[in-house]
Amino acid sequence: MENCAKYQEALYLEVYGELNPADYPDWEKHLRSCEHCRKERESLHQFLQTVKQTIPTPLLSSEQIKRQVRLIQEKLQEEKDLSWQEKWRRVLFPKFAPAVATVCVVLIIISWLGWKEFKKFEVNSPSFPTTLEKQIDRNDLEVIKHLEFLKEMDEVEKLVRLLDKPGNSLPSPYPEGREGKYGGNDG
To answer: What ranges do the domains of the chain cover?
Structure first.
């Protein structure tokens, strides 16, 4: 029975007369060994015979046949004359239009909800201090505000230490013998 699953397509194709001739020997071999498929095949053949006998095929007059052939040829010519963009539009638009519309609606809903949340956050955020501000006390805020000044002071302190070392002296900015503006050494 498990082996029959792969032959199910062959069964239907053979009953409708559309089985590939290259696949026919393998199908016949399977039929000889599988009673279930043989019964199924016979049942389908009987069913098709019953349908053919019960429902008569409509007969078309030669004029009706000519008209149908002409209509088909006109449709084929119309499709042949279409540009490649129009052909793709006819193929893709009906398939993807519902999906594109759904995506657009979802994006609009998400944007609308996101904008409401953003506005809510925007209104509430200035009135409430952030958690970082809550963690920093007032003295620390003063230090942070004057951080640049403290960095400059650190550089000045390093320079003073360098100049205070013995043997380090800078040349006087005044010519020899002249003292600074207030008398005495300015250093």
So the answer is: 1-57, 83-128, 135-164
